[in-house]
Structure formats: structure tokens, C-alpha cells
Design goal:
The chain is of the alpha/beta class. The protein has a single domain, classed as Aldolase class I (TIM Barrel). It is built from eleven helices and eleven strands. Strands 1, 2, 3, 4, 7, 8, 9, 10 and 11 form a nine-stranded parallel sheet that branches. The longest helix has 18 residues. It is globular.
Length: 319
């Protein structure tokens, strides 16, 4: 039909009409709040969600999140000491293991996800052990799998490997099953790109590499077919969820993943995406709430079933 019979503006005329026909909706159940935990609390006034909590303060923050209706958190640990092997990652008395027990005791129903990687724990800042100046893939797998089992033993509901080593999902699945954690899901950072958008996170997690970069194991931003191969391999190895990171610069990858795979697809709305909006809002160039809601809607519209976002706590209040 042609104009004037077809008038697409009719259903945009009022807020209630727009709401009635809205295709993509934000639901708090679809969001995960990342949290950093260390041995002391350090606020971040410019990027509030990038602050660090002591274990006691983490429990208090979990109280607030639960009160607001947030259902899931993703924990990152910053140890007091680091070494070449990243031993703090799989120490049964490590920072994440202690944090899991403390939060679980207070909040049995809060979904606790953990980042499984060595970068926050190694003295060199890389995601695996270094041999002859390079990250040793197969040697790192044992330590990464050991970390995942340690997190499950401490109470993690799901483990989230973010290292991008080849074969790590299969190694973790085997280790979890052998330890009696057959029911623990793996949320795999299946397509994690070597991105410029991780800067604020690396500062918060104290995980900036001391030499080189991570382009030898994280993905080339120019590639999407390769991402689908990574996703396919992780599905075959036993991943329960496939995650794309970052989100906004890679909406096409999220869409491609959604169209090809039946597994749940997640996306990480990373620190740089959050920081850009925060910085623009601080200069009066942008409305933070409007920009954040538009960004999160775009990620969901692209096909993400759930989103890890630093705006999750804010979203709980906005919605």
C-alpha cells in the first residue's frame, strides 16, 4: 500500500503506542553486573562501576544489588601478590575463592559467575604461562582448568573462561566433570577480540601486560568468519553459553552468532564502551541514561540473550 494509506508514524505518536509495538525490551533478568574484588576497597569516582571492593564491602554491595533486583554478578579478583604461574588464580584461599564463600553465605540465590583467566594473577599480565617469550597454550590449559574447578568448589554457579587459549573449554569441561561438577555451566568468551576498548578494565584489574600485547591469542578485530569458527569449536568442546566481547563494535558478530547457533549467546558491554559514554556525559555532550539504554537495547536487538554490563546496577533503578 502507498501513502497516504500507509502511515508508519501512527504507532509512534505516543509513548504508550510506542511501548505497545516495541520489538526489543530490556529485562533486568538478562543482565550481569561485573564486580572487582581485592583485599581493600578502592573507589573510582569517574567510573563508579570500575571500583574495587574488599570482601566485606563486596558482601555489602551484593546486599544492595539483591535489594535492587539484580540476579547475577561476574567476579574478577585482584590478588595481593602475583607470580609467573598465576598461582593466586587456583589457590583455594585465593581472593575469588574467599569472595565466593562470603557472598554465597549471605546470598544463596544470587547467581555467581567467575572470570577464569590468569592475567590478573600473573606478574607479566598475560593470560597463560610464558615460555621462550610466548604464551604456552597447552601448558596453560592445566592451570586454567584447575582455576575453574577451584571456583566451582568455592561456590561458583558458572565459570567463564576468558583466556582464548585453544582447547580450554574442553579442558575445563573434562576437569569439572572429573571433580564432580558435571552440572556447572561454562560461559565461554568464545569470540574475544584484541580490542582497544579494554583500557579501563585493565587498569581496574591490574592486568596490563608487562611486555608485548595479546594479539597472539585474542582475535583480530577484522575477522568475523574466524569468530564463527571459534564459536563452533567451543560448542563442540562443551560450552553452554557463547559470549562475544566487546559488544557494541561487534554487533555484526553477535547477530551472526545468533543466526548460526542454538546455544544462548551473551555479550560483554566492556569498560571502554561504558567509559566513553561516562566521559561524554561528564562534558555535557550526551545524556548518560538515554545513551546507555540505547546501547543496551542495540546489544539485545543484535541477538544477545544476556549482557554483562557495568550499567546493570543503574539499569535496575532506571527500569
Amino acid at each position: 500500500m502507498s501513502f497516504p494509506v500507509t502511515r508508519l508514524r501512527r504507532l509512534r505518536r505516543t509513548d504508550r503506542l510506542r511501548g505497545l509495538v516495541r520489538e526489543t525490551r530490556l529485562d533486568l533478568d538478562d543482565f550481569v553486573m561485573p564486580l572487582f574484588v581485592g583485599h581493600s576497597t578502592q573507589g573510582n569516582p569517574d567510573l563508579p562501576a570500575m571500583g574495587r571492593f574488599s570482601i566485606d564491602d563486596l558482601v555489602t554491595e551484593a546486599d544492595e544489588l539483591a535489594r535492587l533486583g539484580v540476579r547475577a554478578v561476574l567476579l574478577f579478583g585482584i590478588p595481593e601478590e602475583k607470580d609467573e604461574e598465576g598461582s593466586g588464580a587456583y589457590d583455594d584461599e585465593g581472593i575469588i575463592q574467599l569472595a565466593l564463600r562470603a557472598v554465597r553465605a549471605r546470598h544463596p540465590d544470587l547467581l555467581l559467575l567467575t572470570d577464569v583467566c590468569l592475567c590478573e594473577y600473573t606478574s607479566h599480565g598475560h593470560c597463560g604461562v610464558i615460555r621462550d617469550g610466548e604464551v604456552a597454550n597447552d601448558e596453560s590449559l592445566e592451570l586454567i582448568a584447575r582455576t575453574a574447578v577451584s571456583h566451582a568448589e568455592a561456590g561458583a554457579d558458572a565459570v567463564c573462561p576468558s583466556d582464548m587459549m585453544d582447547g580450554r573449554v574442553g579442558a575445563i569441561r573434562s576437569a569439572l566433570d572429573d571433580a564432580g561438577f558435571e552440572q556447572t555451566p561454562i560461559v565461554s568468551y568464545a569470540a574475544k577480540y584484541a580490542s582497544a576498548f579494554y583500557g579501563p578494565f585493565r587498569e581496574a584489574a591490574e592486568s596490563v601486560p608487562s611486555f608485548g600485547d595479546r594479539r597472539g591469542y585474542q582475535m583480530d578485530p577484522a575477522n568475523v568468519r574466524e569468530a564463527l569458527r571459534e564459536l563452533d569449536v567451543d560448542e563442540q568442546e562443551g560450552a553452554d553459553v557463547l559470549l562475544v566481547k566487546p559488544a557494541l563494535p561487534y554487533l555484526d558478530v553477535i547477530r551472526a552468532a545468533r543466526e548460526r547457533f542454538d546455544l544462548p549467546v551473551a555479550a560483554y558491554n566492556v569498560s571502554g564502551e561504558y567509559a566513553m559514554v561516562k566521559a561524554a556525559a561528564a562534558r555535557g555532550w550526551m545524556d548518560e541514561r538515554a545513551a546507555a539504554l540505547e546501547s543496551l537495547t542495540a546489544i539485545k536487538r543484535a541477538g544477545a540473550d544476556f549482557v554483562v554490563s557495568y550499567w546493570t546496577k543503574d539499569l535496575a533503578q532506571w527500569l
